[in-house]
Design goal:
With about 180 residues, the chain is mainly α. It has helices spanning about 25-30, 35-55, 70-90, 110-120, 125-130, 145-160, and strands spanning about 10, 15-20.
Length: about 180
């Protein structure tokens, strides 16, 4: 069992995304996200990004190798952010079967700002600064606010999941 305190998560054991919908209000109230629809959809798409990682055999990499700001845990989370961006790219242009209606309405600059706001609000640096007044990159598990925004943007702008290989990226801030 989990609550909004845990936040959304993907369980590879049963291949299921778990989301306490109260988390979306926590995202606004505690983390300062704008809370728009694409902010919420980003969270869901990020968790399904972990499912993609699981299908590709990459999810276990999070537990391997070094930890901290350059570690595989952070790289795994940033890759899921990138996959969320790829989803947003295609959901806005792909028509539902048998209709002329896309899965998402064309995304406005405000929509993208909402998604970036959510990505930024759950950066390790922002969470640590708010909780302790300090930032300790050695204990990061998800990446900085700027990194999370960067990787979502890479996925959204390119629509190419091959651009999401954070494990090979020499610079997590710029790909």
């Amino acid at each position: 069992p989990a609550t909004a305190d845990v936040g959304p998560f993907y369980c590879p054991g049963d291949k299921t995304v778990y989301i306490d919908t109260d988390f979306f209000q926590v995202l606004v109230d505690q983390f300062g996200s704008s809370g728009g629809p694409l902010a919420q959809e980003y969270v869901v798409a990020h968790e399904y990004g972990h499912h993609v990682q699981d299908l590709l055999g990459d999810i276990g990499r999070a537990q391997q190798g070094p930890q901290g700001a350059e570690g595989n845990s952070v790289r795994t989370e940033l890759q899921a952010d990138c996959y969320a961006g790829v989803w947003a790219h295609y959901a806005a242009i792909t028509k539902q079967q048998g209709t002329d209606v896309t899965f998402l309405e064309p995304l406005s600059d405000k929509d993208i700002a909402d998604a970036l706001s959510a990505a930024q609000s759950v950066g390790d640096d922002r969470i640590q600064k708010a909780a302790t007044g300090r930032i300790n990159p050695e204990s990061w598990t998800h990446g900085s606010a700027a990194q999370r925004q960067h990787w979502f943007t890479v996925g959204y702008q390119t629509g190419d999941p091959n651009k999401c290989d954070t494990y090979r990226a020499a610079d997590l801030d710029n790909g």
